[in-house]
Write a structure and sequence with these properties.
392 residues; single chain; 12 strands; mainly alpha; three-stranded antiparallel sheet; globular; 14 helices; 55% helix
Length: 392
């Protein structure tokens, strides 16, 4: 078990994470993100919150609706949080989908489509958004949007890019880890709409997909892409490791394991987390590397050695939960290491919200607080999860 003084030091951090969430992060987005003229949110925000681009990305619109809906339900029913959630939801409802119900990737400021619905994660985050909104504003149209989108995700999951898939069919078929990972969490987000029985029936399948298909038995690491039968494919894509994805997925798996009472699965997930951190931690400069090649070859991603915000905050959640569920001292030590690195390098001491992109040395690479990929999601969700995990 964790030594008592270490345990007390970590538990005492709960208030720090709560205060950062409620007094810095959420107020930043509430002040700078809403587009009162057109609806929805601006997410391309500079260091001080000033808008530098007005395009609207469906991933980030949906995530922000989810965030303010979730915080309204779980933290405090503040009217301004509900109003913020509705601002984004109304914009999405009006402009976000094509005639077949697929969610676009991006829109102009006033809601005209910019990029086709090639990416199913737009659908995933829209689904999360309306499911969370339905919990605080139980209007049937929000429930129906979430349900229709969820069924569409399941219908498309075997070929989710459809006509936008660039891969030539049949030569090197690959299964990608991202969608199974998200479904681990999305199923729980949808429970209020799908019902407990249907969610319970889905859980074994999503656990199997992650822990038996993508988790490689020889290395104990999760690959981003595998052959249809789960076997290794010796190519750029097949050798790819994404430590952040694995760590995020493992805390989803831990929550599912806790739900079904499977302590063995919790231990397996913890072991995957620890191996992933040992593999992904940069021994020279600290922090978690963005991409790795499982054989040690040069990755094709030129940004492989960057340090990204979401990777580190999701790792903090993973270690907090692993420590809570298992009492493993290694998890407490990793939490301390990750906490010290993240608060030193990602948190901006002069303006609210955290930086997103560091170079390998841990220096700020881009001073933005939001952009095409970074929005109101990973930082607030993680701060909430860590706060509640440590508090309990």
């Amino acid at each position: 078990m964790v030594a008592s003084n270490t345990q007390e030091k970590i538990e005492n951090l709960a208030g720090l994470y709560r205060d950062e969430l409620t007094n810095a992060i959420l107020p930043f987005w509430l002040q700078h993100s809403p587009d009162r003229a057109h609806g929805g949110y601006y997410t391309c925000l500079g260091r001080d919150g000033k808008v530098f681009d007005t395009d609207k990305f469906i991933w980030l619109q949906g995530r922000e609706v989810w965030c303010f809906s979730y915080m309204y339900a779980q933290v405090e029913p503040r009217p301004e949080w509900k109003e913020m959630a509705l601002l984004g939801a109304d914009f999405l409802e009006k402009y976000g989908r094509d005639a077949d119900g697929n969610w676009y990737f991006s829109l102009t400021e006033d809601g005209r489509p910019l990029v086709q619905p090639y990416n199913i994660f737009s659908d995933c985050f829209a689904c999360m958004a309306f499911a969370a909104l339905y919990r605080i504003v139980p209007e049937d149209r929000y429930r129906q949007i979430a349900l229709d989108t969820f069924e569409n995700i399941l219908a498309r999951q075997s070929n989710w890019k459809g006509t936008y898939n660039k891969a030539y069919p049949g030569t090197r078929p690959l299964r990608n880890f991202s969608l199974p990972m998200i479904l681990c969490n999305l199923a729980l987000e949808m429970e209020g709409i799908l019902g407990k029985d249907r969610v319970d029936a889905m859980i074994p399948g999503v656990i199997h997909e992650v822990m038996d298909i993508f988790l490689q038995p020889d290395s104990g690491l999760v690959l981003e892409n595998v052959a249809p039968d789960g076997s290794f494919v010796d190519s750029f894509e097949g050798r790819l490791l994404n430590p952040g994805h694995t760590l995020e997925a493992m805390w989803f798996i831990m929550d599912l394991a806790k739900r079904i009472g499977d302590d063995g699965l919790i231990d397996r997930a913890r072991d995957v987390m620890l191996r992933t951190l040992e593999k992904g931690w940069d021994p020279e400069y600290g922090g978690i590397l963005y991409f790795l090649d499982i054989k040690g070859h040069p990755p094709q991603q030129l940004e492989w050695d960057q340090k990204l915000w979401w990777v580190h905050v999701e790792a903090l959640v993973a270690m907090a939960k692993a420590w809570k569920y298992t009492g493993d001292e290694r998890c407490a030590e990793w939490f301390r290491i990750l906490h010290d690195y993240s608060w030193k390098h990602f948190r901006d001491p002069e303006h609210p919200e955290w930086f997103g992109y560091l170079n390998r040395r841990g220096e700020v690479l881009l001073p933005l607080k939001g952009g095409k990929w970074k929005g109101c999601f990973h930082v607030p969700r993680s701060l909430y999860q860590i706060w509640k995990t440590l508090e309990s």
